[in-house]
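REQUEST FORM: STRUCTURE PREDICTION
Request ID: SP-0412
Submitted by: Lab K.M.
Chain count: 1
Length (residues): 202
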Amino acid sequence: MSKAVAPVRVLVVDDDREICDYMETFLAKDGIEVKTVSDPEQAAEEVKNGGYHLVVLDLMMPKLDGVEVLSRIRKVDSDVAVVIFTGYPSLETAVQSMKLDAVDYLKKPFDPDEFREVVNRVMRKKGLLRSPEENLHRVIGETVRNLRKDANLTLKQMARRTGLSVSLLSQIERAESSASISSLYKIAVALDVKIQDLFGDY
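STATUS: Completed
RESULT:
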């Protein structure tokens, strides 16, 4: 899984405690913050107050079915991504789920890799995941900025030392531009570090 920009928050709603525990372990391995709810009656209130990015919702639950829970969730949050999963897939419930803007409809038992891909797709769409390349640019930018500040250098002074423009240096630090090896070499020399030091722990 790509590295997340900020903690991704997922709510799992399933009356089966074992499924909840499994999902919590499975998602937490990917650095995702997970909360589980076994009572579907609590789901909408939890979504309203929890700041979740994704809800994983079981379809067949006692008291309330998943479509009704999804309908209630949509009344309090029209933006949160919802993935329905069920051991009893049907065209009717799939259509109802999609009408309520569910992002996916998965069959239990689900394939872990397939589910991970669904989660990644949702997070990319919401701008919560970066590609490895984007992540590397961010790490380099933060490292350069921190080293420059540690050396008490302004961007203008760095520009004089490196022969690079203030604008380019600023873009590199904000991860808005990918630095060439030549630029990174000039920055490393100006900061008196090895070029590999600019890559942080990457």
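NOTES: The first helix runs from residue 17 to 28.
Reviewed by: T.R.
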